[in-house]
Design goal:
Strands 2, 4, 5, 6, 9, 10 and 11 form a 7-stranded mixed beta sheet that branches. Strands 1-3-8-7 form a 4-stranded antiparallel beta sheet, with no helix packed on it. A hairpin with a 4-residue loop joins strand 7 and strand 8. It is 0% helix and 59% strand. It has no helices and 11 strands.
Length: 120
């Protein structure tokens, strides 16, 4: 089975920065797409950033220019560098990865979520 473990969340003042990490482990043959989502209280989960296997990226308009997604294939890890944080960025952040395992089964996997709180 595949697990995604997130870290790096916490409390930060507006204008500050955080870097989230998400490491995949388990039965992994290849990791395709990886992304970060977030869910604020009372809101739907939304896509924050996405990175494909060839390194191309996409960002939500609300974070474009402030957040950067990257991946380290040797470590099976995706990162989200968050700069110029705003109170509206407060949410639980989840990583996601589409992974083909060693038994030729492909599925989307989710991390447990990490809380990001941005104070005014």
């Amino acid at each position: 089975q595949v697990q995604l473990v997130e870290s790096g969340g916490g409390l930060v003042q507006a204008g500050g920065s955080l870097r989230l990490s998400c490491a995949a482990s388990g039965s992994i043959f290849v990791i395709h797409n990886m992304g970060w989502y977030r869910q604020a209280p009372g809101k739907q989960r939304e896509l924050v950033a996405f990175i494909s296997s060839d390194g191309s990226t996409n960002y939500a308009d609300s974070v474009k220019g402030r957040f950067t997604i990257s991946r380290d294939n040797a470590k099976n890890t995706v990162y989200l560098q968050m700069n110029s944080l705003k109170p509206d960025d407060t949410a639980v952040y989840y990583c996601n990865a589409r992974i083909r395992n060693n038994y030729s089964y492909t599925a989307d996997y989710w991390g447990q979520g990490t809380q990001v709180t941005v104070s005014s």
